[in-house]
Design a protein that fits this description.
By secondary structure, the protein is mostly helical. The chain is built from six helices and three strands. It is 69% helix and 10% strand.
């Protein structure tokens, strides 16, 4: 016991405590640096995610704008021609000036192959209604990547809620677009026009959401 006490007495406690403190500080610095490095990676990842989502919103907005213009032209043309259709969309009854006005207002919607005089200056125009449907590709790859990597958890709650709502509406529109494509394939034109009107309503709301999100997404960080 005396030898142990004597040996302990001869130890340089100041040196030992200094070494312990150095080790303690070193460990804490390593932990702090690791946390700082991870935090830096998260911030960088979040910035990249927001940039990609912003680019995706811009591209989707352009695609949707083109499609909505086409859909609007289609159901407006069909509404105008419905006043002249003769029981089907392959014949119209109209005066020459009315047929010309329709053709000028909606070129290439109804292609006339021939005509015969019907009565009182009205002609029966035979042909076919041509419908070229725009199918926009509204992507969600950037958003799915953001959620899959859990970076979405780092976003502001209000921003996250608005983004999820926007992409939910986009998903709904994409479903309706697929329905429109099926209706056209089956030549269910009345059903197609109703779907296009519905898409147009939803699309205007989505365009507004795109615009708001594009302006506010920088605050998500």
């Amino acid at each position: 016991m005396f030898r142990l006490f004597k040996k302990a007495k001869n130890l340089n406690w100041r040196y030992i405590i200094g070494e312990i403190l150095l080790i303690f500080i070193g460990i804490n610095l390593a932990i702090w640096f690791n946390n700082w490095n991870e935090s830096k990676k998260v911030v960088r990842g979040k910035r990249i995610a927001i940039e990609r989502v912003t680019e995706e919103i811009q591209n989707n907005s352009k695609e949707l704008e083109i499609a909505l213009n086409v859909y609007s032209q289609l159901f407006n043309a069909d509404a105008d021609y419905s006043n002249f259709y003769n029981g089907s969309r392959s014949q119209i009854l109209a005066r020459p000036e009315e047929a010309i006005a329709l053709r000028n207002k909606h070129p290439n919607f109804f292609l006339i192959s021939d005509s015969t005089h019907h009565e009182n200056g009205i002609y029966q125009y035979n042909g076919k209604t041509m419908i070229e449907l725009e199918l926009p590709s509204l992507t969600k790859i950037a958003w799915e990547t953001t959620t899959a990597t859990n970076l979405s958890a780092e976003l502001d709650f209000d921003c996250l809620y608005n983004l999820e709502s926007m992409y939910d509406l986009q998903r709904m529109i994409q479903i309706e677009i697929n329905k429109a494509a099926n209706a056209l394939q089956k030549r269910e034109i009345d059903g197609l026009m109703n779907i296009l009107r519905f898409i147009h309503q939803l699309g205007l709301q989505l365009q507004e959401d795109y615009a708001i999100m594009h302006q506010s997404i920088k605050d998500c960080q």
